[in-house]
Amino acid sequence: MLSWVRNLLNNSTHISKICQIHAQIVIHGLPLDSHLLETLIHLGNLDYASSVFKISSPTDYSWNVMIKGYTLNASPHNSVFMYNEMLRNDVRASNFTYPFLLKACSARFAIKEGEQVHAHVVKFGFQLDLYVNNTLIDMYSKCSCVEYAHRVLDEMRDRDEVSWNSIISGYVSCGEVENARKLFEEMTIRRNVFCWTTLINGYGKEGRLVRMFELFLQMLVSADEVGPNSATMVCLLTACSNLCELKLGRWFALFIHVNTIPLNAILNTALIDMYSKCGQVEKARRLFDGMSGKNLVSWNAMLTGYVQRGLLEDAIQLFCLMRYKLVKPNEITMVNVLSACAGLVEEGRLQFSNLPLKYGLSPKVEHYACMVDLLGRAGYLNEAIELVKNMVILPDSIIWGALLSACRIHGDIDLADKIGELLLSSPDPNFGVCILLSNIYASVGRWKDVARIRRLVKEKDTKKPSGCSWIEVDGVVHTFLVEDTTHMGSTQIYETHQFLINHLKLKECVLELRHKEP
DNA sequence: TTAGGGTTAG
């Protein structure tokens, strides 16, 4: 009977059937709790699994299975909690559990817990095999402790592509793409498509399009004999869309077509995003309409495209179509929808209330920012203030900025005063918001207040992150920071700049004189 | 049972 019920469990995919089998297990006192747990975890029903675990007398194996289950079902907090409970109950983790635990730690960016698990692996004498070591590198890398990851790599006798790529990926996510490149060059084994893609992505994320493209070309002719796959193309397209680089984006789109790289949902979405961010929103829509297997991210990308191009009616219509197709929106969808409600206060109020009531979503600071902006611009300043007062989360600088902008638009200096007091009393006032306040005072001639705020900003050492601009000339991207003199043509650039300023001033004088002519 | 990829706010 035992093996018959076990087989029955293994072949069950419906909860109702599993409930029946569970009843049989209880009635006959069969020792199948661990199997039941495994089946439930496989089906992703962690609540049921947790109930079974609590009411049964858990075996060591059951503890381990639960840890695995929580990690696999994106519940790393419970996974780590379970591990601590397990230790309190004097139960040891099995070798197979450690990678899951490390994965749970990296998902929570919990370096302390990760280090503790690492220490336990050593203390309890488990073998640090290739698989566990790779998971350790991954954990340290994801927790931004890439130097620890490097230490693990140094101590490994055998390394495979996963070991190398985990650490290269760690350097990339820490913004150290040159260190990633160094390791990539040092690799003693054949570099697979993961390694190439990770490094290409590193350059792409830094906006270094030329280096990214060079690496891509190098990949095509490399002795590794690795071709790009969908993930590689996604990285390349995303870099193009972030830099509005239509020409290169189109080239990659053609490459995908000519080389018949499989167009999965992610790659299609990256294409849609690239075209819409590069101003080709109609092309994006054609792709979107012809795409099979659309998911929520695809809908969101298309919505974002419309909103960012100011095509708000199209965005609202697309959202209606999305609801008609019974696609459930998420937080990102609703940020887009609220942004698309610009000028439509009543619709905005409705959509904001729909967040919890209709879609079961808790409004986040981004949604409040949209609403404050919408209400503030339309002159509903008191309502905007009330909304901020009733927020269950702390308002951020974007919200204060939106409120102050509304004060400026509607000339409500009293309210700006009140907000200003609140802002300047905070220990770390946002630079941009302080300048906004100072500009409001300047617009009504309150120069003493302007000076006061500038002084406060200086005293509190509030720093503005450096603004950056760039231009591509003959395939090379030139980047500029404020008062930057590092560019090779810096002297010539500043001379031309001064020439343009003088030229414009002269034009302005001529125009003024013409106006004054009788 | 480990590594890379898409969508948010002034």
Automatic annotation (TrEMBL):
InterPro entries: E_motif, PPR_At4g14850-like_plant, PPR_rpt, TPR-like_helical_dom_sf
Keyword Repeat: yes
Family listed: Belongs to the PPR family. PCMP-H subfamily.
UniProt-recorded Gene Ontology molecular function terms: mRNA binding
Ranges: PPR repeats: 160-190, 192-226, 264-294, 295-329
Protein name: Pentatricopeptide repeat-containing protein
Organism name: Coptis chinensis
Keywords for the protein's UniProt record, in alphabetical order: Repeat
Domain of life: Eukaryota
GO biological process, one term: RNA modification
